[in-house]
Amino acid sequence: MSRIVVKIGSNVITRNDGTLDVTRMSALVDQVAELHRAGHQVIMVSSGAVAAGRNEVTPSHRLDTVSERQLFSAVGQAKLINRYYELFRDHGMTCGQVLTTKEGFGSRTHYLNQRHCMEVMLGQNVIPVINENDTVSVTELMFTDNDELSGLVASMMDADMLVILSNIDGIYDGNPSLPESKVIRTVEPSVSDLSDVVVAGKSTFGRGGMLTKCRIALKVAAEGIEVVIANGKREDILIDVVSGSDVVCTRIVAGERVNGVRKWIAHSRDFVKGIVRVNQGARDSLTDPSKASSLLPVGVTGVEGSFEKGDLVGIQDADGTLIGIGCSEYPSLVLAGIAGEKGHRPAIHYDYLYLENI
User: Fold this and answer.
1) 105 compared with 197, residue with greater pLDDT
2) Which label site among 69, 75, 92, 314 has the fewest CB atoms less than 10 Å from its CB?
3) 200 pLDDT exceeds 60?
């Protein structure tokens, strides 16, 4: 049995006029149901609520972007989950809705509560259908798009595979509109950046583009989760991807498995409460791949911001480069007071430290 997170983009289940493509939704649910019957646990992260709501209601006057998104998502989310519920019911299966916000991943308690909810659902053979709660999100606190949300969910749920379904076949080695461009079929764990080959651009109904997908995919794969970017409009695409068939798509090979706490920290850059600056010796020790090192106060040269014990902090070297994120073992005032001193317990323990790819 494997655990699979499937992200369904707006352009996969939305027609050109903005209405839901029920035929495509039905085909995807059929595939999820088949995977479920084969023993796989499937978690869906589905876009489409805002697009669905936009077709259902016409504002009586001009609204700002946030208000319009809240209105459309409130109406569209009801329509979207109701359709999924009916489609799964035809298979004798039950789905459940999980709405979340970016803030819900910043607190370790909220993070664990969300994970527990989804674990309970999976344990009772309920398919979680997850989406951002756009009715309460505001611009600066929104996910980049549901690609980011799906990466967080895959990491949180310790998935074996993340499948990102879009309306193209994968990552191309050039502009997808040019005939000479080809799909990159495999990306090895050693690759940390694909920006030189990816053409920036956003989809019609979604917020993200291929650059976002690549950034999220590489980060998730580096945590030990295989990532596949594929065309959600291809017939039986999920079955082919999971079975390992030679279907046209991009597979990002999983790196070494990362433990759960570090996975949470890896995706929490937006929630750091302060900065801890370190000297060259501490930097060299932390980034040495041959050993596991905690950050000791003796290597700290400065503390910025106000934080408590257990809060997330960024770790910067003398040049201001972010080299990692970790949970501080001290409040900011205490750590500032012992910075540069020997004989103290670690400022950030190795088990609660995530290093950036630098």
Assistant:
1) 105
2) 92
3) no
Strand segments (E) across the chain: 3-8, 41-46, 94-100, 126-132, 161-166, 186-187, 226-231, 250-252, 274-278, 300-305, 312-316, 322-327, 353-355
Q: Under 8 Å CB-to-CB from 205, ≥6 apart: which residues? A: 10, 11, 14, 18, 47, 48, 50, 51
pLDDT in the model for residue 205: 39
CA dihedral sign of residues 316, 321, 327, 332: positive
Average pLDDT of the chain to the nearest whole number: 88
Q: Cβ atoms within 10 A of the Cβ of 91, count?
A: 16
Residue 301 has, within 13 A of its CA and on its CB side, a CA count of 13
pLDDT at 107 over 50: yes
Given a cut of 90, whether residue 19 has pLDDT beyond it is no
Q: Pseudo-torsion of CA 86, 92, 97, 98, nearest 10°?
A: -150
CA distance 119 to 125: 10
Give the tokens for residue 351: 């088990």
203/168 Cα distance (integer angstroms): 11
Looking up tokens 């991009």 gives 250
Measured distance CA(26)–CA(134) in Å, rounded: 24
